[in-house]
C-alpha cells in the first residue's frame, strides 16, 4: 500500500505534468494567430531549450523519479514547435530592407506614393519607412545580442557557484560515484541556463515597455507547474540531507525561476495598455 507522502507527491507530480503539457499551447496559439513571434525573445527559447537538454541528460543519468524524466523530454518536443514558429514567421514583419509584410502591400504603396509626391524618398527610391525599418532591425539585433551576453554572464556566475558547491561537498560527490556526479553537473548546468534564460525576455519587455505577443496564461501555468514540481519532490519522502543533495539542482532550477516568472507577471501588470495610457495621460496633464 502506498504511503500518504507518495500519494501526495504523485498528485503534485501529475498536476505539474498537466500544466507542462499545456503550458506552451497558449503561446503557440498566440504566435499562430498573430503569425508572428515578435513578442518573444528568441534568446529566451534557445536557452530554455538548452536547459531542457541538460535537464533530461541529468535526470536520465541520476535515475530520478518518473515525472523528473518525462517532463524535460516533453519540454524538448514543445520547444521544437516554438522554435519552428520563429523560422516560419521570421519574414512576416519588417525585414532588413524595411519592407512590410504582404498583407499590408496596398497600405505601403499608398504611403510610398504620398512620400514620393512630397519628396520623402531618397535617390534610390527607398522610403523613410524603409530606413526606419532597417534601423529598427539593427537596434533589435543589438538588444538581442546584449540580452544573450547578459544571460551568458549569469549562467557563468551560476556555474561558478556550482563548481564552488562541488568543491565544498567533494567528499559527497566521491561517495556517489562518477555517473551521479556527472548527472549532478548536468542538473546544475540546466538550472544555470534556466535562470539565465529569463533575462533576455525581461530585458526585452523593459526596453519595449510592452508584453504584447506574450501569453499571460503561459507564465501563470509555468509558475503553477514549477511550484507543484518542487512539492512533488519535497513530499516524496522525508527530506534527508542526501535526498536534498540529490535533487538540489533540479529544485534550484524550478524554484529559482519562479521569482523571474513573477517578474514577468509584474511586467504584464505595469505594461498593460490601460496602465500605460493612464501614465501617459498623467504626464500630459502635468506642469
TrEMBL record:
It catalyses: L-histidine(out) + L-arginine(in) = L-histidine(in) + L-arginine(out). The keyword Transmembrane helix applies. It is a multi-pass membrane protein. InterPro entries: LAAT-1, PQ-loop_rpt. One of its GO terms (cellular component) is lytic vacuole membrane. Residues 116-137 are annotated as: Disordered. The chain crosses the membrane at residues 6-25, 37-58, 64-89, 148-166, 181-203, 215-236, 248-269. GO terms for biological process: vacuolar transmembrane transport. PANTHER family: SEVEN TRANSMEMBRANE PROTEIN 1 (PTHR16201:SF44), SEVEN TRANSMEMBRANE PROTEIN 1-RELATED (PTHR16201). This is PQ-loop-domain-containing protein. It comes from Coemansia erecta. The lineage of its organism: Eukaryota, Fungi, Fungi incertae sedis, Zoopagomycota, Kickxellomycotina.
Amino acid at each position: 500500500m502506498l504511503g500518504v507522502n507518495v500519494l501526495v507527491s504523485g498528485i503534485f507530480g501529475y498536476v505539474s505534468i498537466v500544466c507542462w503539457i499545456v503550458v506552451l499551447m497558449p503561446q503557440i496559439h498566440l504566435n499562430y494567430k498573430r503569425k508572428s513571434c515578435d513578442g518573444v525573445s528568441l534568446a529566451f527559447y534557445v536557452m530554455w531549450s538548452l536547459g531542457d537538454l541538460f535537464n533530461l541528460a541529468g535526470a536520465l543519468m541520476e535515475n530520478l523519479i518518473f515525472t523528473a524524466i518525462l517532463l524535460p523530454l516533453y519540454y524538448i518536443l514543445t520547444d521544437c514547435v516554438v522554435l519552428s514558429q520563429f523560422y516560419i514567421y521570421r519574414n512576416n514583419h519588417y525585414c532588413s530592407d524595411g519592407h512590410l509584410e504582404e498583407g499590408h502591400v496596398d497600405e505601403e504603396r499608398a504611403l510610398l506614393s504620398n512620400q514620393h509626391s512630397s519628396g520623402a524618398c531618397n535617390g534610390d527610391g527607398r522610403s523613410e519607412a524603409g530606413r526606419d525599418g532597417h534601423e529598427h532591425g539593427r537596434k533589435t539585433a543589438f538588444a538581442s545580442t546584449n540580452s544573450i551576453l547578459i544571460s551568458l554572464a549569469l549562467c557563468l556566475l551560476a556555474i561558478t557557484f556550482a563548481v564552488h558547491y562541488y568543491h565544498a561537498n567533494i567528499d559527497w560527490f566521491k561517495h556517489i560515484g562518477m555517473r551521479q556526479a556527472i548527472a549532478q553537473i548536468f542538473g546544475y548546468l540546466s538550472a544555470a541556463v534556466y535562470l539565465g534564460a529569463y533575462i533576455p525576455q525581461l530585458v526585452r519587455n523593459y526596453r519595449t515597455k510592452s508584453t504584447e505577443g506574450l501569453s499571460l496564461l503561459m507564465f501563470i501555468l509555468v509558475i503553477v507547474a514549477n511550484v507543484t514540481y518542487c512539492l512533488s519532490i519535497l513530499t516524496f519522502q522525508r527530506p534527508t540531507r542526501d535526498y536534498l543533495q540529490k535533487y538540489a539542482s533540479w529544485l534550484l532550477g524550478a524554484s529559482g525561476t519562479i521569482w523571474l516568472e513573477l517578474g514577468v507577471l509584474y511586467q504584464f501588470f505595469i505594461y498593460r495598455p490601460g496602465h500605460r495610457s493612464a501614465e501617459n495621460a498623467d504626464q500630459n496633464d502635468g506642469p
